Amino acid sequence: MPRCAVRVNAGFTLLELLVVMVIIGLLAGYVGPKYFQQIGKSEVKTAKAQIAALEQTLDQYRIDTGHYPGTELGLNALMNNVANEQNWGGPYLKKGVPNDPWGHPYQYRMPGQHGEYDLFSLGKDGQVGGSDESQDITSW
User: Fold this and answer.
1) Torsions phi, psi of 43, nearest 5?
2) Is the separation of the CB atoms in 102 and 43 below 8 Å?
3) DSSP codes of every residue in 88-122
4) Binning pLDDT at 50, 70 and 90, where does residue 129 land?
């Protein structure tokens, strides 16, 4: 009985590997932007939540002292009794005044142009105005 040599092809051809690479590239090109768009949306939601929390803290400061801190004192008045307020009940924040999700300090004005005070983030670009992630996030 003659022996037949059986040749087994183990592995992939270069063409098969290129097709798989193209498919992976197309998927990454579609999924990647969607993923990073969601990250941008979550940073905006985080900034809105932090502004809401800071508003509540400012309200507590006002209840204790009878007024909001002035612009010159800013949000630091929530952590330190720099104005030697008699009824100051702080520090009002456990971990200090946070920066916005992009690492910029929150902006605070008292008196405000849109209410008793203005509290806002300048967004990702750190500049006034903008759109999408770079849009200002405000308390008003």
Assistant:
1) -65, -40
2) yes
3) ------SS-PPBPTTSPBPEEESS-SSSS-EEEE-
4) confident
